[in-house]
Input
Amino acid sequence: MNAETTVRSAFLRLGSVVALTAALASPLGAAAAPEAHAQDAPIAPVPDADLLGAVGIGVSDLARSTAFYIDVLGMQQRTTFHVGDLDEVVVGYPGVRSADVVLMHWQNDATRHYDGTNVKLVFVVGDPAAILARLREHGGKVERDAAPIEVLNGRVVGLGRDPDNYLLELMQR
Output
């Protein structure tokens, strides 16, 4: 199997997992086939080892959150899915295989609360302070400025919040 086939296969499995998760989470429990829209966002081949493929978070405004993860964290849109009343945008870092973030928004469910409680997304980045500066420029909230953390052998870590109040830990590579 060549690299392109491996990537396609892995991505289709990810789409199936996302669709299954969405169907199970649906208030009606209805299973619907995902409608995927591929973007021009190539990703590196997936290794044979197990890995975390994505983290899904509910967002109150899909366009605003997509722009945030692209503009502030330098990610790109990989694909979108529409499953019943659930819309998803998958974002990830260009040209590398790392865990993606699945931004999920339910169209017809007023009982959803997007408040970021008890969720943390950890990003390993080159310059946490620069990303926190971009976060501030985009009206985001900084919880802790980037500074060395003793228990992490002096690695620089900063904390901020995305538009739905999810905690973002920015850890220096």
